[in-house]
Amino acid sequence: xxxxxxxxxxxxxxxxxxxxxxxxxxxxxxxxxxxxxxxxxxxxxxxxxxxxxxxxxxxxxxxxxxxxxxxxxxxxxxxxxxxxxxxxxxxxxxxxxxxxxxxxxxxxxxxxxxxxxxxxxxxxxxxxxxxxxxxxxxxxxxxxxxxxxxxxxxxxxxxxxxxxxxxxxxxxxxxxxxxxxxxxxxxxxxxxxxxxxxxxxxxxxxxxxxxxxxxxxxxxxxxxxxxxxxxxxxxxxxxxxxxxxxxxxxxxxxxxxxxxxxxxxxxxxxxxxxxxxxxxxxxxxxxxxxxxxxxxxxxxxxxxxxxxxxxxxxxxxxxxxxxxxxxxxxxxxxxxxxxxxxxxxxxxxxxxxxxxxxxxxxxxxxxxxxxxxxxxxxxxxxxxxxxxxxxxxxxxxxxxxxxxxxxxxxxxxxxxxxxxxxxxxxxxxxxxxxxxxxxxxxxxxxxxxxxxxxxxxxxxxxxxxxxxxxxxxxxxxxxxxxxxxxxxxx
Length: 490
Fold this sequence. Notes:
Layout: H1 4-12, H2 19-47, H3 59-62, H4 74-86, E1 96-97, H5 106-118, H6 125-128, H7 130-146, E2 153-157, H8 160-175, H9 179-182, E3 188-193, H10 199-206, E4 214-217, H11 227-239, E5 243-250, H12 262-272, E6 275-280, E7 304-308, E8 320-324, H13 327-334, H14 364-398, E9 403-405, E10 413-418, H15 423-432, E11 437-443, E12 446-452, H16 460-476, H17 478-489
Parallel strand pairs: 1-11, 3-4, 3-5, 5-6, 6-7
Antiparallel strand pairs: 2-8, 7-8, 9-10, 10-12, 11-12
Helix pairs in contact: 1-2, 2-4, 5-14, 7-14, 8-10, 8-13, 11-12
């Protein structure tokens, strides 16, 4: 079958080819191929849950990735596409525990696919239409769950890094609105825990505050920020003539899954007039759970909050909800007039006025289709199930003497070591031999395997199977696992 370029040329030459009909036929063929590839992928996820990794130095030798001067025929195209897809890590398989996202929710995928077909940009009502209402309803309902009133507003962003950046900019401008025009002219200070997300330091650099002006507050034995140390650091900076303005608290730290004590931190922020942001990218979804929302007790006192739906809620990447308690700060920092863009409708429905981005994919629809289909209670049940799976893992680890458990209840990060074997070595060899994808982490000078239970599609049996697979793998590969240790002691 001719490709679209050939059809266009044929039309230009006056040949009797109907472009519209062939275009529809081609789209149907691509959709058929899409369905075929997806069906085969789903089968492979069951039979081969972990892909045999291609060494990066051999990537362009193994796969047909290079772009060429001329297009290729469909047979070669589809073959190259399949090889690419089938050699990509399978993040929705039952043996993927490597990152803070996993699983696949069908209704969310439906919304994402439709958003791609519709291809709306979310900056104006004129081009996004009812999809603006979809995003506004997600923001409204999320703000309500946090405990914010009608003054709140927000936006959908790509993830926690961008949400944290927006919060820091808004906090900066709330401290001194002239900075938007004159730039940073004093030593402004950011506070965050020792276990915070790496984006805080990066964002301080990007916004002109400087990495050296980020204070890492001490944490307790469970990885939670110590409010008394925060206050001591703020008071010392004030004595030194610095200008504290922003505190980042975390709901679900990236390694231990810890929840900072928001109530205690908020008292310090109120006393010193500091912007309080809750980075809930990982575990902020506890706001949907009646059982676990107490982990973010006091969240309504924060000035801003974000949660990544592509983590605990299982929507496709990317989808993060950012909420500001007072929408005037959102508009103060992010709104800008552009007559070539904002030409119709109320500004409340022109979402580009409260977004850092201009052209922006409709990432709200996939969360809306999931939320609409299962309700707030359904989202809460997903969250509850993930904590249950973590409890299953901790119970297993506690009852088997070959394991050392580092984590605690009320966390979906389960951290442990097995038989005192180097956790980095175990995780690396599991990956290289395409058995399990799981990562490692470090807390208070201890390194361990970090096993996350954010896939709500997993069952108790899937969790227990992980340990069965791990134990069998270690037994079969014990010589390779100990080779480094033996070499270092020789």
